[in-house]
Amino acid sequence: MRTSPASRAIVVGKRSSTARRSACSWSCASSGASERVIAVRLNHPEFLRGIMSKHESKSAETASLPAKSPAKKQQPTPTRREREAQNLRPLVPEDRKQAKREMQAKVRIEQAKAREGLAKGDDRYLRPTERGPQKRFMRNYIDARYSIGELLLPMMFLVIFATFIPSQSVGIWAMSFIWAFLAVCVLEAVMIANIIKRRIAAVVGKDKVEKGIMIGTIARSLQLRVMRMPKSQVKRGAKIEFTGK
User: ω before 45 within 30° of 0 (cis)?
Assistant: First the structure.
């Protein structure tokens, strides 16, 4: 049996209105049931007893706390003019000589701290080219071994004394000896620098080896141990390993 579009619309409208009424009745019934459950719980004696016990415990805690007495002022509040007067400082000190002496004393203290930090190898007081774990490893590795370059300065003094001898052959031999000795010292320093570079490259990589290792090794190897700066931080014969820190 065929139906017209108008009749189909009426049927659909009746069905939708019926569904809405059923949904509304279900929600109302569920809300009424939940309200009844809440009312039963609120009227339950155990629930009321728990609320009363919590209230009594809180009141007992507040009663046990000592009463705070208001702090009393020991002196009057300074005025704005008094505070400004306390913060005033003269641009030019009254006693310039005393101020100069105090400034010189501060400068001497700072210089003493800088010398002490430099002697200990503190990076804060070193030049930028001497800071870092790689340069520290270089210094410790050189200080932990014996090197021929440490004898260069005493040998130079001997050569100077030899030049005062009234003999031309002695002067020639002395100058030849000191130049040959210097070449041996530099060659040894270059070998030490290559060893240091290889050990650093084994940890951080060849591309991350800092510049200045060669020059720093030669300069430190040709100095007496007591004249090196920063001072030696390791003993001779100590085993030095580079860890990258």
Answer: no
CB 238 within 8 A of CB 144: yes
Rounded distance between C-alpha atoms, residue 197 and residue 199, angstroms: 5
Distance CA 110, CA 56 (A): 66
Task: Note the pLDDT tens digit of each residue in 176-217.
Answer: 999 999 999 999 999 999 999 999 999 888 888 888 899 999
Tokens of 52: 């009363």
User: Hey, CA dihedral for 57, 59, 60, 66, is it positive or negative?
Assistant: positive
Find out whether 132 and 216 touch, Cβ atoms under 8 Å. Answer: no
Question: What are the DSSP calls for 68-84, one per residue?
Answer: PPPPPPSSPPPPHHHHH
SS3 212: coil
Q: Are 241 and 156 in contact (CB under 8 A)?
A: no
